Amino acid sequence: MNKILLVIQREYATRVRKPSFWVLTIVVPLLLAAVYAIPIILSAHSTEHVNVLVVDESGLFQQQFQSNNDITYMDAGSLGYAQRQLKEVDSIDAVVYIPARATTIPTDAFLYYRSDKPTMQVQRDVDNQLQVILRNAILLDVNNISEEDYALITGTSIRLHQLDLETGRDGFLQVKIVLAMLLAIIIFFSIFSFGSQVMRGVAEEKSSRIVEVIICSVRPFQLMMGKVVGIGLVGLTQFLLWLLLSAVAVLGIQFSNKDLFEQAQQQVSITQVATKGTDATAQMDALQQQGLVSELMQGLASIDFAAIILTFVFFFIFGYMLYASLFAAIGSLVDADTSEQQYTIPLTLPLMLPVLLMPAMMDAPSGTLSTWLSIIPFTSPIAMMFRIPFGVPYWQLALSMLLLVATFFGGVWLSGRVYKSAILYYGHKISYRDLFRWMRRQSG
Amino acid sequence: MLDIQHISKSYGSFKALDDISLHVNRGAIFGLLGPNGAGKSTLIRIINRISMPDSGSVFFDGHPMTDDDVRMVGYLPEERGLYKKMRVGEQAIYLARLKGLSYHEAAERLREWFSRFDITDWWNRPVEQLSKGMQQKLQFIVTVLHRPPLLIFDEPFSGFDPVNAALLKDEILSLRDEGATVIFSTHNMASVEELCDDIALINASHVVLQGSLDEVRRLHPGRSLNDIFIRTVRDAHPSSASANEVQ
After folding, report:
1. Predicted model pTM
2. Cβ pair A213:B79 closer than 8 A
């Protein structure tokens, strides 16, 4: 066991020390930060005044929206009228629509906009006011409520949807699609590039005959798994650093645009009406602040990041281990005069399939194609990461994970057999017949 | 120490080794001679269990050789096996630890060997910057560092200048004196005469001459080893197996 740790240590240390590792580690969060920062900075410095029409069918929000220096709220009679205004009158920028519901408390509100989306500032202001008005309305309506009920009420919120007036598309959906593509592409490139590193490492050890020198002290399987695990840990280190650096970058952006955030917070406190003991007020403040942080991410707010990160780590670990061990087997087949090309194609094809089919999956993230791709082990790491932001039923997730783990064990076992025979096989081109013989037999 | 009995190995239709039998004495230096392509490296790889014979067996200390016995072997392959991008010292320590030495033990022994081979300055350089001879020195050190009882060197002198070759010869002799058994393959007859206790000559997959160096000399009086080598290869009959029969 000690030997495998030595191999892991070497594979890890030699790679993490490379400058290329650090370049990639720093560049990716910077790019992400730029993507995140640009809209915020743009909206923070937009000075244009915005007019928003409010259509309230619930009766709770009429006359309650507070206008400020940047945004004027006006009540409108019907949704049809307001939408016509939005379409025809240039000075009207958005419509907030709160539909009537059977129950007294509305759960959803809609923000209609024209061709370009309302700025973050408008989105946030509308959302804040919706939440505060709703809570105040409930509090004014109910006397003598208990502390627990109070906490429950302050926890209720109204979901704000964004809709493009022309296309009727949910604005949040686009955020999810971008996130889905990003996750799928990151996991694809990670598995592919770290897997190829395993293959090249194995081929190097074979062609330079290093393996002949060390095979008397390390078992072939230890050498193979040491390499797979060592390089996998490099990948996990990279993700961890990406996550940390991205968090630092995002917090940095929030801090440097402090005015924007404080402004939003003040608006919330102005409209605060109800007080019920200092504890409750503090609690409410806390809840509102909590709300602010997540509202910052707007469309992302409805997405569970912890779940995404955990799923990503799981699918990376097992997807990578499955592919990397197969890549290792391919590396062991490579000889000076044979190229690995002929062996890698059967392996890269299933890996690339979900990436190629991404446009089709985008149309129906929970459709038949997406579902199958996210359950079949060889395509599941990428397809599942694509589906995750849209929500995946638990049984599908569990089935997919189970199948991937089972395939991983099978793949490692098979690769170990091929590797053991092929790594010391020189001088003759390895045929597919040799390959199948090795898979079946203990050694060649 | 090592008994090789009736080993045969074919690659497709090519017969690399045909019924080879050899005996290597404990504590002796055994020279494995033969022209290019005779099958020396194939035999060495079979002893190391890198490849398996089609038939025949290798006995180590009287029992059939196992994977565990291979741990007793220090093997220097003909083609140098080192990680090119890795630093010299780091690599040497890594390989030594794989062979079971502790970090400190490895570092201490390496310091000693590096100064003896005059390569201490190269400790922090990547291996790819080393000349071929330097890489060979490093590889040699790594092979013997954990003091295995059986040492197998495939063409240890190729690529060495006379000064370094002499250095290497001295080291091989002192390893023998410390109790190690040494097998090495070579075309270099001078090194054979200086080092070997016993020799075997392999030609075209067969052993054509075998015995102690003194014995071989006695059977071919007045001839240089080089001369014996050339004549034997030219006159070789595939069926002949030992020095006596050649005579």
Report:
1. 0.75
2. no
